[in-house]
Amino acid sequence: MNENLPPCPECSSAYTYEMGALLVCPECAHEWTPSAAAGQSAEDDGEKVIRDSVGNILADGDTVTVVKTLKVKGSPSGIKAGTKVRNIRLVDGVDGHDIDCKVDGFGPMQLKSSVVKKA
């Protein structure tokens, strides 16, 4: 047991270990990044934490993938599912749009975190 590693956020096991960039719990097989553990404590402190469509915590500068095709005004095709968006910025946007980014082929726009997945 390494006393410098946090306990598992799923089952609170103290037997976590490092595997590359991930922390792993041998009891429940939960894997997470150390930054995700820090984000969860920030959420417990009342700070706003923005999560993607599958629950990963997002941060400024992350790369995300669009999970469903999005309609865009003035564009016949829209943004296709699977489009990668690099270097996002988290903002307190209008109408649930909490990601500010530049999408290749479309330019600057805001997206909802519920339609992206961390890449």
UniProtKB/TrEMBL annotation:
Coiled-coil portions: none
Highest taxon of source: Bacteria
Residue span(s) of domain Protein YjdM C-terminal: 50-119
InterPro entries for this protein: YjdM (IPR004624), YjdM_C (IPR013988), YjdM_N (IPR013987)
Protein YjdM N-terminal domain residues: 5-33
Pfam families hit by this protein: YjdM, Zn_Ribbon_YjdM
UniProt-listed NCBIfam families: phnA
Family classification: Belongs to the YjdM family.
The protein's name: PhnA protein
